[in-house]
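Input for the complex:
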Amino acid sequence: MTQTAVTEPTGTPPSAGVKHRGVGDRSLTFDVIAHVLLILWSLLVVLPLLWVFVSSFKTTQEVLGSPLTLPHHLNLNNYATAWNDSGVGPAFINSVIVVGFSLVIVMVLGAMCSYVLARFRFFGNRFIYYLMLAGLTFPVFLAIVPLFSILKNFGLLNTLAGLVVTYVAFALPFTVFFLHAFFKRLPYDVYEAAQVDGAGEWRTFFQVMLPMARPGLASVAIFNFLGLWNQFLLPTVLKPDNSVLTQAMAQFQSQAGYAVDFGALFAAVVITVAPVLVVYIIFQRQLRGSVVAGAVK
Amino acid sequence: MSSSASTTSTGRPARPAGRGRRKRLTFDRVSFFAVFLGVPLVIFLVFVVSPFVQAIYYSLTDWNGFSATMNFVGAGNFVKLFQDDTFLLSLRNSVILGLVVPFVTIVLALALACVVTIGGSGTGAVRGLRRSSLYRVVSFFPYAVPAVVIGIIWAQIYDPSRGILNAVLTSLGFQRAENYPWLGDSRTAMAATIFVIVWSFVGFYMVLFIAGIRGIDPEIFESARLDGASRVRTAWSLVVPLIRDNVQTAYIYLGIASLDSFVYMAAMNPDGGPQNSTLVMSQDLYITAFTKGQFGYATSMGVMLAVVTLVFAALVFIINGVTGGRDKEGRR
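Predicted:
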C-alpha cells in the first residue's frame, strides 16, 4: 500500500488515515477505466464531425470512391458551390436576420415581463406565470396547424416578419421562466433607492434593474440563440420556401439524391456547423456555466 | 392611452412586493404596466395560447384548412384515429422512442457524469477525475449542431455505399456490412435512428448531471469513502438518489423531445422509413395536415400527441414519487 502516491494522479497530499481496504489500487484501475470510457465517447462524438470536415474537401468522385481515403488536394470548390448554387448562402443570411431580430425582441420582452411578474404583486400574477409554464410544456405540434391559419389571417404567412413573431412567442415562456427566478433574487433596496431618487418605473428598470440582471440575461440569450438557430419545424410550416438555414440544409440533402453533389453537401454541413462550434469553443466555459445555473437553480 | 391601459387593468393595484406602499397611478406607471406586461402577454396569447385552444376545437371538426366552413364531427376524428393502421403504427413508434431514448440517454449521461465527478483521487476530498474538462467540451459538441444537420451527417455515415460506417466495418472483416442499408432495412432503421438521437442528447445531460453532482455536499462522499464504499456503490447509492430531481427533469424534457423527433426523422427518413418502421406521430400529423389537407384530422393527432406527452410526464412524476423522490437531504 505504499505506492498510493503513484496511484494518485491528482497529486493531492495523502491525508492520513483515509486509506481503507486498498482504495488506492482501485483508484488507479478506476481512473484508467474512466479515461478509456470518456475517450471512447469523445471519439464517437468527434470522429463523425471530423469525417464530414475531411469529406468536404473531396470531389464527388472521391466521395463515391472510398469513404476512408483522404482528399487528393485541398480544393475549396465545394464551399463555393454550397454557398452559391445550393441556396445555403442566402439561407444563412436569412437565418442571421431572423434569429438576430427574434433574439433581441424576446430578450427585451421576456425581461420586461418576468420583471413585472417577479417584482410586483397584482391580481392574476400567478395565473399568468403558470400559463407561461404551461406554454413551455405543451408540444409545439399541437399548435402548428392553427398557427398556420393564424399567420395566414394576419398576412404573415411566408414572411420573415411572421417567423420572427412566432419565434418570439415560442421563446417567451422559457425566457420568462428563467429570468423570473433571476429578478426575484435581486435586492429590493436598490429599487427603493432608485424610486426615492425620483426615477420612474421605466428608468428604474432600464438603468438600474436590467444592468444588474446581466449574467442571467447572458445565459438565457445563449440558450435562446441555439434553440432558435436550430429551429426547423416552425419555418418548415410557416415559411415553406426554404429560406432559413436548417430548411435549406434539409432541402439540399433531399436534392442531393438526384443532383449527386455530395462534396458540396458536406461543405454545406461545415458552413452550418462551424460558426456555432467555433463560438461555442471560445465561450464554452460560460455556456456550460449557464447549464449549471439552470441545474442548480 | 386609455385603450391600452384597459388591457392591463389587472396591473392597477400593483405595488412593490417587498414593502406594501400603494402608489399613485401616474402616466409613468400606467404606461409601464401596459407595455411591460401587455405587449408580451398579447403576443403570447395570440401566437401560443390561442393556437393550443383552437387546436382542441379543430380536432372535433372535419376542417380542411382552406374552406371557410367546417362540420362539427365530435369525437369522430378520435374514433377514426384508432382504426387508422398508419396512425397506430406511428403511435407505437413514438411510444418506443419515448421509452427507449430517455432511458438510454440518462443511463449513459449519468454514467459518464459519475465517472468524471467521483473518479480521481483515492484520498482527501472528492475532486473528480483530472484532465476531464476536454471530455466535457467535446461531449457538448452535438448540442451546438442543429438537429436537422445531425440527421444529415448520420444519414451520410449510414449510407450503404459511401458511408463511413460500412467502410469501417468491412475493413474490420464484417463482410455482411458491405452495402448494408442501416436506415433502409426495417430491422435496423429504428435502432439506428435511436442511436443518433441519443448521440445528440448525451453530452448536454452529462454536463447537467455533473453540475447536479457538484452540488452535493462533499462530506457525504467523504463519509462514504471512510466507510469503504466502492465507487460504483457510491454512484448508485449516493449520487443517483441525491440528484433524482435533476434526473426527473431530464426525463421529462427528453420524453417530450423524443415523442416529437420530427426533425431527426425529416433528415434521416422523411417518408417514414422502410415499411413505415420509423414513422412517428409528428410526421404522420405533418403529412396529414400539409400534404393531404386534412387539418381537422391532423389536429386530433396533435391532441393525441399532447395526451401521450402528459401521460408520460405524469408517469415520471408518479414513479419518482413512489420510489421515494423529493428527498432533498444532503443537498448543499
